[in-house]
Design brief:
The structure is a homodimer. Chain A has about 200 residues and is mainly α. The first copy, chain A, has nine helices and no strands. The longest helix of chain A has 27 residues, at about 120-145. Chain A is elongated and about 70 Å long. Chain A starts with 8 loop residues before the first helix and ends in a 6-residue tail after the last helix. Chains A and B meet through α7, α8 and α9 of A and α7, α8 and α9 of B. Chain A binds a DNA duplex (30 and 30 nucleotides) through α3.
DNA sequence: GTTATCTTGGAACAGTCGTTCCAAGATTGG
DNA sequence: CCAATCTTGGAACGACTGTTCCAAGATAAC
C-alpha cells in the first residue's frame, strides 16, 4: 500500500528541459533544478536518477515535444519547397524572437558538451539528426514531384545539407545572429535547389 | 632588476587552446590546465588572469593560429568554386580524421557554452564569423568572375550560407558524423551555387 | 656580491558540485 | 484505524571548483 508521487514527473521534466535549454546543461547545477521544479533532491533522484540520466530524459523530452511535431509537420506538408522555406522561417523566428529567443536548440547545444560521449545521449543526437534528415528528405521529395527542384539534385545529399544548415542557424542564433542575415543564408541554399524556371 | 618568465607564454597558450578545444572549456578545470602546461597556478594567473580571460585568450589564439591562415588562403585563392570545395574537403578531413578528429571547432563549440555571454568572448565569436564570411565572399567573387556561379546568386547571402554550413559540419563532426555524409551535404549546396552549364 | 623586483611552488581558501542517507510524512489497501 | 510501502524534506558527504596568498627562488642591474 504505497504512497504515490506528489508531483507530475512530466511537468517537472518539462521545466528541467527549459532550464537546460536556456542556461546550458553543464552550467546548470542540481540546486537550480531543485529550485525550478520545486522538488526535493530525494524526489529528483528517485524519479530520474543522477544528472546524466536526467539530461538524457530532458533531451528525449525535447526531441518529442519540441522537434518531432515540427519535423512531422514538415514531412507531411506536400507543398514542396515552400514548406521548407516555411520551416526555416519558423525556425529563425523561434530562435531570434519570442519566449525562447537566443536559446538555440537543446540538441544542437548538446553536440558540443561533454555529455555527447555518453551512449544514451549520443543516441538521441543521432536520432534527432535522422529525424530531421528524413523530414527534409520527404519535403524535397514532394518538391520534386511538383517539379520545383532543379534537375540532378541528390535528395539525400540535399536533406543532409538542409539539416546542417539548420544546425548552423541554431548555433549562430544563440550567439545573437540577426534573423535577416540567417534567412538570407537559408534562401541562398534553397534557391540553389530550385529549378531555374521556377526561380 | 626583475626576474623573467621561466616559460614561453605563447607555447603555454597553445597547449591550453588544445585542451579547451578537445575536452571543452567548461569541462576543463584549472588543475588540468596546470598539469598540461606544467606551469604553477601562480604563473598561470599572473600571466593570463582568471579562467574567463584565459578562455578568451585561448579563443583568440585559435582564431589566429587555426582559422585565420585557412581563411586567408581561401580568400586569396582565385580558382573560384574549386577553392571553396577544397576548403570544405580540408575541413571535413580535419574534423573527421587525424590529430584533431572529433574535436570540432573551438569557436563553434564556444557558441553553446555559458561564456558566449561574456563580451570579450562574444566579440571573438563575431570576429570569427565575419572573417569566415569575408573569405567565403571573396572566393565566391572569384567564382563569379570566372563565370562559374549561377546567375542571380546573392554573394553576401551565399557567403552567409556557406559559413552556416561550415558550423553545421563542425558541430556534427564532434558527435561522430561520417565524412562522406558531410561532404555530400556540402556538395549539394555548392552544386546549387554553380552555373548550369558548369554543372 | 648586493639588492630590488619579479616569478614560482604549493598550501589554503570558501564555495559549489553531484550524490547519499535517514527520519518523518503521506497514501492506500485491508 | 492499522500497517505496509513509497515519497519527501533536509542535513550531510567527500570531491572538486576557481582563486588567493606568501614564503622561497631566480634574475638582472648596479
Amino acid at each position: 500500500m504505497p504512497d504515490v508521487k506528489h508531483f507530475d514527473p512530466d511537468a517537472a521534466l518539462d521545466q528541467v528541459m527549459r532550464l537546460f535549454w536556456e542556461r546550458g546543461t553543464e552550467a546548470t547545477g542540481i540546486a537550480e533544478v531543485v529550485q525550478a521544479t520545486g522538488l526535493s533532491r530525494s524526489s529528483l533522484y528517485a524519479t530520474f536518477g543522477g544528472k546524466e540520466r536526467l539530461q538524457a530524459a530532458a533531451l528525449r523530452h525535447y526531441l518529442e515535444r519540441q522537434s518531432r511535431p515540427v519535423f512531422d509537420a514538415l514531412a507531411a506538408d506536400e507543398h514542396g519547397l515552400p514548406a521548407i522555406t516555411g520551416f526555416f522561417e519558423q525556425l529563425v523566428a523561434a530562435r531570434c524572437t519570442g519566449r525562447h529567443a537566443r536559446w538555440g536548440c537543446l540538441v544542437t547545444n548538446t553536440h558540443t558538451g561533454a555529455a555527447r560521449e555518453i551512449p544514451e545521449i549520443r543516441q538521441v543526437l543521432d536520432a534527432h539528426h535522422a529525424a530531421l534528415r528524413t523530414a527534409m528528405r520527404a519535403a524535397l521529395q514532394s518538391a520534386r514531384e511538383r517539379g520545383q527542384v532543379r534537375p540532378g539534385l541528390d535528395l539525400e545529399a540535399g536533406a543532409e545539407a538542409l539539416a546542417l544548415l539548420a544546425y548552423g542557424v541554431n548555433l549562430r542564433s544563440r550567439a545573437g545572429a540577426e534573423a535577416a542575415q540567417l534567412m538570407a543564408g537559408v534562401r541562398a541554399v534553397l534557391d540553389g535547389f530550385t529549378r531555374t524556371e521556377e526561380r
